[in-house]
């Protein structure tokens, strides 16, 4: 059976190379993912790091009930985006299964613990920092080119959807990691944010130089409202005002950056994703979205289940669908579905300058 599938794929590739079969016959649209634990599909499983989600109860609601390396009870945001694209989930770039026809689906380069800056997440040691993720993307294109040729590879990458989720760790696991951290002594918060934005600009332009033309760029979520921060910085259960300064200052500058880059590129390449508002909708009114709480994590321990890691020894809620947060930092699959719903149909307040449904509809007409 495997041999016959291999022969069929070889035939398809020969037809593509001959120009008698369109490349769309092989893949509707490739999808590439870069970033941190919010979008990591399991790359860190292959690394010697503590930033992993490869043990129970992670993955408890997957068909196999096994941990996959996603920081979720089941599916994360990239998985659900893939559903909307009508594609199978992207494989982690480090997975041995990412080979042959699987390369045409795309790849997930994300790695839990990383940030915009190279010194972010230093305590996790072996993680794939963003520059290495971009290096792997170059390497991927080389592998793909040897499979379908340079011209087809360029077309596939140009037409692909890209998601990049960075920034949260630069605050949680860097600036605010410890009192009087090195970065907080070096920069005031506004100056630190300006520095981050200047560094992020280089990353986004590198994606453009590598051929990406449809890039969703997520802003920072409501850091002051996640269970980990409520457990350590809030006495009343209210969102921490200091951490909430971060999205207030950072996100408008990120939107401005994407707008400036689009003007520079002469096209709407970069879409600013308002992750803050997407989360705050269900955090501020959980009942409206079917949640019993947005303050307590399903899996964890201590106040708000927000201390330490989610492990087999942690408290575990019996029904993940009524919790907004799976662990101290990451949403449940149900919350992720609400977020991706806004990716698809959200107004300009959520997706600027356009939502994903508009992007897909425009592409369908061309």
Automatic annotation (TrEMBL):
Pfam families associated with the record: Lipase_GDSL
GO BP term, example: lipid catabolic process
Highest taxon of source: Eukaryota
Signal peptide location: 1-18
MF term (GO), any: hydrolase activity, acting on ester bonds
Keywords (A to Z) from UniProt: Hydrolase, Lipid degradation, Lipid metabolism, Signal
Matches recorded under PANTHER family: GDSL LIPASE/ACYLHYDROLASE FAMILY PROTEIN (AFU_ORTHOLOGUE AFUA_4G14700), OS02G0617400 PROTEIN
Similarity remark: Belongs to the 'GDSL' lipolytic enzyme family.
The protein's name: GDSL esterase lipase
Organism, as annotated: Musa troglodytarum
